[in-house]
Specification:
alpha+beta, Immunoglobulin-like, single chain, nine-stranded mixed β-sheet, disordered N terminus
Length: about 725
Amino acid sequence: MKINNAVGSFRKNKQSIDFKQYRLSGTLDFSKILISIILILSGFSIQAQCKFKPIGHRGGSSYNYPENTLISLEQGFIEDIFAAEVDVRFTADSALVLMHDSYIDRTTNGIGDVKNLTLDYLKTLDAGSWKDSRYAGTPVPTLKEALLLANKYQKKLYLNMKVFAPKLIASTLKEAGVADDIVLLDPDDLEKVEIYHKILPNTPLVYFGELPEAIDDPVFYKFLKDNGVIAIEIPADYVYNSNDDRFDKLRDIAHSYQLELWAYTVNDPAYFKFLKEFGIDALETDRPSEAYQFFCNNSSGGYFPEKRVTAQWDFKQNLFGTIGSKLVLMGDTSIANQKIEFGTTESFNLSPIENSSVGIARIPAFDSEHALRFFSNIAPEGIPGGLDCDNTYSLIFDILKPAGKNQYTAILQTSNNNSDDADFFLLGEDNGLGILEQYNGGFADSTWVRLALVFDLYKEKLDEYLNGKYVGTVVLEDSKNGRFCLNNNWGVQSSNLFSDNDGETNPIFVSSIQIRNYAMSPDEIEWLGKPTATKIDQSILNGSTLLCPEFESDITASHDENTYSLHVSAGDSVNYKWEMNAGNGWERITGNAFRNSASPTLKILNTSDLSSDLKFRCIAYNDCQTISNEFLFEDLHTGLKIPVWDQNIFRIYPNPSSGLVTIDLTETSEPVEVKVYTVQGIQVFQKSSLSGKIQLKLNQGTYFIQVLNQSKKEVKKLLVID
């Protein structure tokens, strides 16, 4: 994320944008599926069809892949982004590596500042597990490695230089044996523009520094043009919040000098629409494929934000995340009474959870110099603003608070430097829940409870739950983008747990903590219930108003010159994910023979060396998913033969039903697990190792039936009427 302090914030009355919530959906690179890849026809590019330039923020595809890694870059290059924006820092031994934060805590399994660590040490770290366990072992890349990968795909790297090192960039380009124009550089003042252009005259520059007070000053634009600048980049919210025509003039005058106007960082389809209508030329985004589909193919931009569990910690003798980044103890770790202790309920002589001894941690009563730092890992949503705030989120804690000497026990501290009062406390012997002199409910000391805090700052409120039951609401006036939001600038700022600026807290035991990027419903919280020995469940339950995707037809195919295409349609308010099966199970499509694997149309650019028994399918999803039929790749060159099977795991009938429902599992060859939920998320049936046909008697209402086997999951909607 770039920071531009030179341009003021311009306010303008506009209609609010309705942003949906989202959930976890991972992806995985399986290049081994392709036997070999023939070079794509020279000059072919989706970009030739559309002038808009999608730029992958913090790598090629950081919404689903770990940022600033080669796996993220390659996925973006495969999807044909114009450039990948990457962040570059010095190591202690003057190597240039890709890393956004000044420290490595958030995106690796190490701790410390990049500038104080050697390249050899960084290469021992895991930079992928924080995003998803499937990316375990992903290394921290050097700039040279990224250059070689970009050169392989004939793509560009847009370098967000956290250090000013033009000579070192020049020597790295030479060492990698790549052309100087494979990179774009980002000077943030006019002096750097001049220096960059002098040392690297063939390297394009993108200027994002101070704009002239007189926006129509021709000297400014001529200077940029004469010194190798190809574009001016600004924060997208400058355009949105402008109350005059200043940025319209900037765009038009820049264009008259053959300079483009770029913006950063936007992920939301509603904001895509605004910028498209404004006429932005390029956009940094964590969802470049979706942005391209929106700007160039008139798609809806997909379903965003997806509901996700973005972080969870289960305290397995360490602070590593079960999901997301690890926790970091801030302050002097040598102070004895400020250390975190790990053990079990039994070893700490505490009551068990569900009659089981469970791994837990003891958090001390932190003084003002100590805190437990966490990252929410919530991708930027909605209007990108100066505070980079997430205003809707849920925090769930499995905790036990013993009797303490302090009146308050701090739970949440959104100030990353612990500079003010905590933002949620337990109060007194009764452990009332709240803040701002608004306390509700409570629980007894030395008992395990599941505390859920649901923040919706657009509605200026915090809803509080204990053991699945609602206990009260705290009114948070004028709280949007304020004190109680979670900073989601992915490392520029973090938040803290169990700390307060003047040490108003007590020791506390914790079994599990979870963060979700949306305001959970009362039914979801009730479904989670009390503390469990298996920690906090990560299921995302469907809302009562959610419509699951439905494919309009089977996969169809077409052929245009050297490109073959597979087509599906399940509407606009869904995301698409194409998969293929080469005999080793279903895997996300990757490889430079494919394009648009996140859209309704999959393009296959070369079929010569793809095995004839390769199968394709598409998954359409919002907060539930539907799987298409299978398409057998037989021989697209000679007639588009399309053997198609009905590959559903199960059928349900009748639907609608009068109460007695048959679930037909005869079309799957392996036993399955069946779960049935109401639209409120209440589970009413669950059984494993089922096959054949089963019958259920259900009351009037709407249900979701979920069937899972070892390779896939399928959800169908059922209506039961009188």
